[in-house]
């Protein structure tokens, strides 16, 4: 009898031990009921490392020694989510930590403040950001006491999370390494003084992406560098009407995360061109990257740290880039120079199609009617959805949008396309573009020339 | 006047029928206006017109209600206009028909003139007077014919063989520049004046004539070495090596410079 009892206790202890070891922590899953009633703030920190990529462990403020994989000599990235009106876990959270770990051997801590963010009352969630920031600040201070350097702290904040990152940074006197703000929240923060929002003094380096400045995002620059994807307003591929349901509200906003994940993937890069306005950028007035030396204009995303020193020297930089509808989001940019010999000024849109190796890519320059003037070079900015390594043929189409006017002809002396990354260019001389008629030809290597 | 009187009586009978279920003036007033509104302008039915007249005959209490909808003066004005619109101008054409036809006519004239304009549109860039082209601009250059079988006779320009080859090449050059939209009008002639060395280099001269006015602009841009050279080079890149056979010109070998 005694033996039996002894064995049973042992068995129980073993199972408890096994269960304890294998238990994976999950992001808090709440539902609409919680959001309706409202939740009180509870911050959970889920640690992922290369040792436990898929299985998170909960780290507490007190006991660091129980997490042997939590190596404080490595970079520690905190992913801070935003407002959760429905209480569901963010769909991208697992992918985010996976991809960060794939890029670098670091500690990824998912800051789960779903209790606090899940609330139909947005103002309550905004209030909770300050408390969540205090909580996180305390944790980082303990990390510091245990030997972590603030330089190796990297905060990635999405929406409200971006401001939390800002508050944490401010609490720590801006000495943490880097903050990335992904479409920092606008409502209740727009117009706030710097201490009540994310700002460049919150960390040694602050990079911010804007994807929904006319909705849930923040319009003004917030960091050392601010990227405005597609002007920061409407993202391609996102619904334009309310009939598409909830995605109408969140698609633009959420795109910021998708773009950042794409940058982690390194399939292709999106360069941000410094410019005063999106209009100027589209007009091709901001294609000069000489200020950044051999590296060229800063590339959006995880690797923007390469430009850190030059950007810090510049203070604040506002940059623009365009994206595709789906991943891979990066576009291929060409500068197009057109010179005509028509006696009269012509206005219109140019569509460029490139063909090569059975693939085809189109760019329509139609954000405004371009002006073409006799013997004057007209500079256009064409963005293609994919990059063709060798262009065998190209097609050009000129259109004016006029219905009743006579069909005009654009008499081109020379058209020159320059790949902005590879700097290679090809030309075509002496072409007549009849309105709405596509002309296809073989481009020839440019004889390096300026008239 | 005759018509107006008739319609009045018509309206009156119609109204008296309607009044029975309504019972009071109030209801009648509403119905009257309903009739008025349902009456299309084009329906040619004029009974609605009498609403105003009838209403003014009614008791004062009705008047108050009516004021919210139509004052009698307004209604009678509408009525008068309707009446006038329905006047026959000639044959069976009524005034409203004439007005609509007039509008259609104006619209058609606008469209026609726009279409006509686009058809007879003269392209300013296609008008030029070759007799004013007198200032010459010449280019010299050479190119290589790698596919051509070399014979000694080609070196002497007077030989039959070199004459035919020169003729063919001259034709080729002339065709290429004459068909050029930008340069064609200025092109005067092409000459092949020598064949040189084993690699068979052909020397050529191109002559263009341009007008005295704007000659600086033309000299620097349209008829610049860059443009003339690249039009030739582009033509050479477009040719298929196997199709042009012996006459194949190597694009890379093309050299050209302005003759001063």
From TrEMBL, chain A:
GO molecular function terms noted in the UniProt entry: carboxylic ester hydrolase activity; heparin binding; metal ion binding; phospholipase activity
Superkingdom of origin organism: Eukaryota
Signal peptide: 1-21
GO cellular component, one term: extracellular space
Subcellular compartments: Cell membrane; Secreted
Main location as per UniProt: membrane
Role noted for this protein: Hydrolyzes specifically phosphatidic acid (PA) to produce 2-acyl lysophosphatidic acid (LPA; a potent bioactive lipid mediator) and fatty acid. Does not hydrolyze other phospholipids, like phosphatidylserine (PS), phosphatidylcholine (PC) and phosphatidylethanolamine (PE) or triacylglycerol (TG).
Family named by the database record: Belongs to the AB hydrolase superfamily. Lipase family.
Designated name of the protein: Lipase member H-like isoform X1
Lineage of the organism: Eukaryota, Metazoa, Chordata, Craniata, Vertebrata
UniProtKB/TrEMBL annotation, chain B:
Source species, domain of life: Eukaryota
Keywords: Membrane, Transmembrane, Transmembrane helix
SEA domain mapped to chain residues: 135-260
Pfam families: SEA
InterPro entries: SEA_dom, SEA_dom_sf, TTMP
Segments traversing the membrane: 95-116
PANTHER family: TPA-INDUCED TRANSMEMBRANE PROTEIN (PTHR14636)
Protein name according to UniProt: TPA-induced transmembrane protein homolog isoform X1
Species this protein is from: Gymnodraco acuticeps (Antarctic dragonfish)
Source lineage: Eukaryota, Metazoa, Chordata, Craniata, Vertebrata
Originating gene: LOC117540365
